[in-house]
Amino acid sequence: MHGSRRDFLKLTGIALIGAAVPDALLPAALAPAWAGAPGYRADARALKAARWGMAVDLAKCRPDCTDCIAACHAAHNVPAFGHPKDEIAWIRRETFGRIFPAQVHAHLEPRRQAGPVIALCNHCANPPCVRVCPTGATFRRPDGIVMMDYHRCIGCRFCIAACPYGARSMNYRDPRPFIRRIDPGFPTRTKGVVEKCNFCVERLAVGKPPACVAACPEKALAFGDLEAPDSAVRRAIAGRTVLRRKPELGTEPQVYYTL
Amino acid sequence: MLEKALHGNRRYWGWLAFLAAVVGMGAFFYLRQLGYGLGITGMSRDVTWGLYIAQFTFLVGIAASAVMVVLPYYLHDYKAFGRITILGEFLAVAAVVMCVTFIVIDLGRPERAFNVLLHPSPRSILFWDMVVLTGYLLLNLVIGWTVLENERNGTAPPAWVKPLIWLSIPWAISIHTVTAFIYAGLPGRDFWLTAIMAPRFLASAFASGPALLVLLCLVLRRYGGFDAGREPLQALARIIAYALAASLFFVLMELFTAFYSGIPGHAEPFRYLYAGLDGHTRLVPWMWTSAVLAVLALVTLIVPATRRNEAWLALACVAVFASLWIEKGLGLVVTGFIPSPLGRITEYAPTGPEVAITLGVWALGFIILTALYRIALGVRKETEA
What we know:
The complex is a heterodimer of chains A (259) and B (385). Chain A is of the alpha+beta class and 259 residues long. Chain A has nine helices and ten strands. Chain A has one domain: 2-Layer Sandwich (Alpha-Beta Plaits). Chain B has 385 residues and is mainly α.
């Protein structure tokens, strides 16, 4: 019995040492399969920015229109469950009163209070969801886009608790049977992971603007580099009264609403 | 020593068989949850943590409360706790195992749980919770086991155990502080955004944990052939009284800040808990039950005549445990999500499978607790004989 235990410990020790040896020291036959493979090259058409941002013109947004939501949810294979419990939404239409409760007062015209406001991930410059994620599955790119790695997410939902905007959704069940038409251009998700708006990184990478921006018939959504003074988003907010959602929380939201 | 857990009378095996059946029922429903997803629970888009995380939070407190017997015994040489310190340490072991199990069953993708180790993220409080809970489990297991083994051999515990025991005292505080930080550091969840969260957690833990320990001692006296004696139970009763008073005081301070300031984000969750919000009143009867039980228990524990009467003491401990389970378990976790960031009120109620899985985890914890207590009391009997 003692012999076998000692052997086991020895084997464990050897295995641990093996795991600690850097790849460079291994003989060529043991080199990883991807060694020598061509590196990833970005598409020449890819759009780049120092910090991506969006401006929503509330005056242009029509109350009866949901084109941006339809375009986004079709492009990203977002399922439709038809009830609020399992609902997944990357972009949603809410009322002014719900999105900007601090701006509501007794004499605000009911029309304004009930007016449509598009809500999506704010791609915060100081994102609490990234801070709390225990695996790095949610991370912020150098260009400011807050992204999800659906293959690393463990589904703890700490990010949902941390997001002050309700921008994140949990896959409480397999979403695939509830996707109207699967677009093979974007991965579907599995049950048990969190998802949200990604500012259409997959479209930016091939030179296209976000799906919601492209779909808006009123051109109410402006997208671009917030660091570039002549960008569409900067021109859209220049000289206008701008609201951001819950700016007092210090999250630095990068979606701007103009009145 | 492990073999002692394999010897017992019919009642011992019957109790274990019952617990195993409950674990089996929980496992059955957990397999269904694995198949369907977390949608099998009552959790929703708006309320994304429910019964599982509530149990986790409550049980971290039970685990941390072991320090209430360890500290007087080892730091103040309070001899009366000598007989029950091991019970406190082993209770902490069982409680931490339940905590970890509740976290794992709450994950959407439990098979990826080790991503927390593969991609350590020191900015995440969950990462630190894993660190402190694992450390606390090991500390209590190693300390309890070593001290017990030496007790059996009639030798003094080795010198290296002493520093571990000292370490376990601040470590116990740390596990509940870090657990409070999971909640208290989130922008936009005003109900949780309070600096008093960690002290409040500790106060309620130092009431609910010792209350459970008193009840366990009374059960062991009747069915386990082990009498902890009168003095340690009375000392625990005094600890519970102080901790419960502090816990109630902290809740009242929360209520003052929320309602006197009148800030809606702070007042609305408390209004939801104790009066209902826009006609949503699901937790109101629970919270008032919790409040009434806490006050009755406090009176029972403060009045010397009732505290010294062990029947009244047992009732008070049941009341303390139930009250704080409601307050910290149901009330604290769910209400953080009410109203939602978009101002909606979605109420939460656990589903049948969710309750079955929860009971299964508790039963698993009690199997571990029963086996560990069997070993500890077996050693005691051997050395006393």
